[in-house]
Amino acid sequence: xxxxFLAVALLVxxxxxxxxxxxxxxxxxxxxxxxxxxxxxxxxxxxSLCEGxxxxxxxxxxxxxxxxxxVEFDPATEKLRIVLDVHKLVGLPLxxxxxxxxxxxxxxxxxxxxxxxxxxxxxxxxxxxEHAALKRGETIPTYRGGYVIVYDPATDTAxxxxxxxxxxxxxxxxxxxxxxxxxxxxxxxxxxxxxTCEEQHWMLYDVKTKKFRELGPILRDQxxxxxxxxxxxxxxxxxxxxxxxxxxxxxxxxxxLRVEGKPFAEVLGTNRIHPDWRLTPDxxxxxxxxxxxxxxxxxxxxxxxxxxxxxTSLGNRIEGVHPxxxxxxxxxxxxxxxxxxRVDNKTGFGTGYLHHLIRHxxxxxxxxxxxxxxxxxxxxxxxxxxxxxxxxxxxLRPRHGYHTLPDGTLTPLHVIMxxxxxxxxxxxxxxIYPYTLLKVESVKAVK
Length: 447
Description:
2 domains, 4 helices
């Protein structure tokens, strides 16, 4: 009995010690908001995140085999509401259609000067039943292609601009149409740049003629178009060159990216994926990161077509292994660059991964500042311990996307899917399992 009491006492002491432990890194405290569960099937989404001109936050969702939705978050009331049902808008069934469904809003949600939000839908993945059918040599529903969509918060209405590359427009033998991974509008010129997936065709939509046409170069995986100070649509090609479309000449140029004279692809190394960049307000510079690399880069976009595009490495955002950084680079109103990056937790304080918020100040010599690790200030925002929720088909909804540090603090586990800095300096991010919008409370992007 004495041994039993001693064991219990030691356990209580150990737990108390763990709770009293001090993290060897600062916390970036955020308030968590559960994205409406009826808008997802896997408690997930991607980097479909933006701030509207009205100050509200817009988040795209993924409901595999069924639909996709755009959700509005009002910072003043902290209420969420569905503002766009993709299938309802484009006239597709509201009941599950399997692989044929518009299962994701995966675009970065471009906000034009008018306040309109430009986005696109794409395919999801075959269900378990569809995979089994394919193995048996059977057919599954055909995905025709993704839609380009414009949502106007001012009128709470949406417009369907159509399919940039439906299956009918592809070569004979094509298995599916192209989804949409990026939409960027040049409202002043009446042009909309579209990038498809999974083949990354670069396309242009003319607002007057209401027609899509292909610009030519095949782009990198999950890229995005920028419109530089000269009005040129600018994107990264599959071999890490820069493609530029000049509306004045109606011509496309492809020029090499160079870091100290070396090809950008060579400097990056092998197996680097998903480049992601953001434009400075003057349209002359872009800041770039890739998903699985520690570095941040600065890109000079002022050069002429036919000349190499100069890239400067700003060094590692943080030291660590197995980096993961998705849709998270953002320029703040304070003129600084913000980024979220995950690395393995090698600190000895807990296990798993840690998601750091990084800040780069172009005016300072110190390249990167680690502001700390994302944590949740309201861990009761979701029931992690009760009976797991189920989808209508009986499948369990994932809820394994967070973990607890030794002091009891809740922190995201797997991935930060997207991050933005709002005009008032508030930082927002999304994470998954459950699909969550994080509103950072302890750090603000102000001068």
